[in-house]
Amino acid sequence: MKAQLSTSRPLCLHRPSGAEAEEADFQQQLKQMLEEEEEKEAEPLPPMTQPQFIQLCKTLCVMIHGDAQEAALLQAVATVTSLVLQIGEAGHRGPAPEVAGPRGPRGSEVAEDEWTVGFAQILASLLTEPALVNFLEKPLDLGAVVTAAREKQYHQRAGLLTLQTR
C-alpha cells in the first residue's frame, strides 16, 4: 500500500512532537480558514435592481418609524433615495457596459439595459447623510424590529383585505 501525500497542508519536515505539533497544526488550519473567509468576503455584491432598491428604502423607513429623529431620518432617506435613483437613471440611459453576462440578484442574468446600482453607489450615497450614518451605527435589536415590521405588514394587509371585501 502506497502512502499518499496531502496537498491541502504543507509538507513539514522536523515537526515538533506531541501537543506542540497539534497546536501548530491547529494554528495553521485556523490561519488557512481565515484567509479563505477573507477571500469569500472580497467577492463583489451583485447589482441591485430598481424594485429591490425601492424595497430597501421601504425597509429603512419601517426601521426609522418611531425613532426620536424620525423626521430628519425620513428626509435623509428621501435625499439618498433621490440621489441613487438619479445615479441609476444615468447609468440606465448611458452606454451599456461591454461585460459579458453581468450577474444579477439570485444568480439571474441582468439585462444590459436594466436599471441597476452597485453597493458602492448606495453606500456612498448613504454616507452623505450624517443622520442616517448615526442611526445605522447605533446598536439595534433586529429581532424586535423584524417582529414589529411583520406585525405592521400583517395589519396593513388585513386592512386592505377588509377594504376589498366591502
TrEMBL record:
Residues 1-21 are annotated as: Disordered. This is TBC1 domain family member 8. It comes from Liparis tanakae. The gene is TBC1D8.
